[in-house]
Amino acid sequence: MVGRWATVVFLGAAFLGGCASTGTRPTHGSDDPFKPVNRKIFVFNQHLDRVLLKPTAEAYTGLTPLPLRRGVSDFFSNLDDLKVVINESLQGRVKPAFLETARFVVNSIFGIGGLIDVATPMGLPGYSAGFGETLGVWGLRSGPYIVLPLFGPSDVRDALGLGVDSFTNPPSYLSSPSALWGSYAAQLVDTRSHYLHQGLLMRLASGGHEYSFVRDAFWQKRRALMRARRGGP
Fold first, then answer.
1. Checking DSSP bridges between strand 145-148 and strand 152-155, what pairing results, if any?
2. Could you give the CA distance from residue 194 to residue 130 in angstroms, rounded to a whole number?
3. What is the distance, to the nearest Å, from the Cα of residue 175 to the centroid of all Cα atoms in its chain?
4. Positive or negative CA dihedral for 178, 154, 192, 80?
5. Which of 12, 15, 54 is nearest to 201 (CA)?
6. Which residues, 6 or more positions from 93, have their beta carbon under 8 angstroms from its beta carbon?
7. CB of 190 closer than 8 Å to CB of 73
8. pTM for the complete prediction?
9. Range of the domain at 22
10. Beta bridge partners of residue 147, listed in sequence order
11. Count of CB atoms within 10 A of residue 174's CB?
């Protein structure tokens, strides 16, 4: 599971979900039966971000030239394409799986191991897919809302998917502990650096109810994604 730690850090999921929604949908109490525990973990994640993740990402952004930061992002994005290829295939989405495979091959060969995204300008845009979504396409229900330490907003189905997705993350197979955790740290800082200015937007949009805002935005985004994956209304 730790292999997905850096790429699905809770801030990316929470902020993307919040900014993708122009409003929140009331969530039934049955969607959040673990609310007391979830709230405590949510507060812990916010505190961790405030004292460690955000300052580190700000320092990284301030000290690292943009071309180098872009290369780091493209490199990790290229590695993540492996997970997408596998899950698109498991979902029976032949065309996206083929295009994602072509994207990975092109970037790995002509993009210097993925450091440069040459596939997108060639008409090979990236997709997004994880094993949690695959389980949903297979018919497994999402289960209740949970907040994971570091990972943030999730549901039981996605939490199970994280463990499987970890096996598709190449850095998980590094034998050197220093290289392994160094890779995780680099992924984490890179991910957080993309959302430096969205915390304030979330606080303003939530009207002081950040926990509920993030939870409802998560459900809204996930349900819309699953409808699209299943081809439903």
1. antiparallel
2. 20
3. 25
4. positive
5. 15
6. 129
7. yes
8. 0.77
9. 2-230
10. 153
11. 14
Q: What is the mean pLDDT of residues 180-209?
A: 80
Q: Where are the alpha helices (DSSP H) in the chain?
A: 10-19, 35-48, 54-63, 66-90, 94-110, 131-137, 156-165, 177-193, 198-206, 210-230
Quote the pLDDT of residue 118: 96
Distance CA 119, CA 109 (A): 10
**Considering its fold, how many domains does the chain have in total?**
1
> Which DSSP symbol is given to 64?
S
* % of the chain at pLDDT higher than 70: 81
Q: Residue 30 pLDDT > 50, yes or no? A: no
> Above 80 in pLDDT, residue 208?
no
Within 8 A by CB and 6+ apart from 9, the residues are 53, 150, 151, 152, 188, 191, 192
**What is the residue whose two structure tokens read 């300052």?**
55
List residues bridging with 154 in a β-sheet: 146
Mean residue pLDDT across the chain: 83
Whether the per-residue pLDDT at 215 is higher than 70: the answer is: yes
